[in-house]
Design goal:
Strand content: 25-35%
Number of strands: 40
Structural class: alpha/beta
């Protein structure tokens, strides 16, 4: 597929400086772009790469004299890159129809134009929406509902009763609806609490590879619309994740925690259970969240504190050995002065 730069600009609401009829067939980085491809400058530190790029056009925030070819001017080059990449990205590969090697149990409701690969399994009374793609090794338990145009990649497990919305993407190896970690102690013995709830994932959610999202003890674990999770994320039972929240890799969220809307959670953050995180909170990587956080705050550290305070604290941590030596010297000096005072 080739598009004129003018058509791309119209789709982005941008303006073109230079030849707007140049044909574009793809997008690439400044270093690796070739003739016929468009590139972008989202990080000013890379501006020197503009001088050597072979791209047929570039996306920039403002006109630059470093590049003599056509320039597409937009308010946010990185956002524009995401949208142009979507235009040129290849479609999800599809098996034509339902493979004879797939297992479809009785009482299922399979929508139109589905793609069910060999060795996928769909349990009894499950509902598979229109244009859903199930890759090889996908397990869909009984009474599961999957909305239209969702894509479930290889070896994903969706346990019984769970609900998946429209246009959801679940990457390989993820488990939806495994038992929540619930036990009651009887002396030294752990007694399992049956996890009788479900997981519900709303529309336009993307779940990374090898996530584990536990079913609720009662009611449901809820991932609201627009949420995006990275790989290796653990979400405990009865957690609620608000709309458009982003969760980076290796985050662990303990049971019954509530995450607000548009929260950004850095990698390797750990949450204790039964706390509430307000809307638009930002949490720095490797933080330990031990208590609730009001909306709009930016926090980091173990335990979490305002981000700027954590930066100062971290700076002092590096100097603790130095402080220790200084304290020892001061203690010795005080002791010497006290002995001199005793001697008169």
């Amino acid at each position: 597929m080739e598009l004129t730069l003018k058509r791309i600009a119209e789709s982005l609401g941008g303006t073109v400086k230079g030849d707007d009829q140049v044909l574009i067939k793809g997008i690439n980085s400044l270093l690796f772009a070739e003739k016929g491809e468009i590139s972008f400058l989202a990080d000013p530190r890379l501006k020197d790469q503009i001088k050597i790029t072979k791209a047929s056009a570039i996306i920039v925030k403002e006109i630059t004299s470093l590049y003599q070819g056509p320039q597409l001017i937009v308010p946010d080059p990185y956002l524009a890159y995401a949208r142009v990449a979507t235009i040129f990205s290849p479609p999800v590969p599809r098996f034509h129809g339902i493979s004879e090697k797939a297992v479809i149990e009785k009482g299922t409701d399979i929508g139109k134009d589905v793609s069910i690969y060999p060795f996928a399994y769909v349990g009894e009374e499950s509902v598979i929406g229109n244009k859903v793609v199930l890759f090889p090794g996908v397990y869909v338990g009984s009474r599961v509902k999957i909305g239209d145009k969702s894509v479930i990649y290889p070896n994903v497990t969706i346990m019984s009763g769970c609900i998946i919305g429209r246009e959801v993407i679940i990457h390989a190896g993820t488990v939806i609806g495994s038992d929540g970690f619930g036990y009651a102690r009887d002396g030294d013995v752990s007694i399992k609490i049956p996890q009788t709830g479900i997981v519900e994932i709303e529309d336009n959610v993307e779940i990374g590879a090898n996530n584990a999202i536990d079913r609720a003890a009662l009611d449901k674990t809820l991932i609201k619309k627009g949420v995006k999770t990275d790989n290796l994320v653990q979400i405990g039972h009865n957690v609620v994740v608000g709309e458009n929240t982003i969760i980076v890799a290796q985050v662990g969220i303990a049971g019954s925690t509530r995450i607000g809307k548009s929260v950004v959670i850095g990698g390797q953050v750990g949450f204790t259970d039964h706390i509430e995180i307000g809307d638009r909170v930002m949490i720095g990587a490797k933080s330990g969240v031990a208590k609730s956080i009001p909306g709009g705050e930016v926090v980091s550290g173990i335990p979490t504190m305002p981000h700027r305070l954590w930066l100062k604290t971290r700076g002092h941590i590096r100097r603790l050995p130095e402080y220790s030596e200084r304290v020892k010297k001061l203690e010795n000096k005080v002791k010497e002065l006290e002995e001199q005072l005793k001697k008169g």
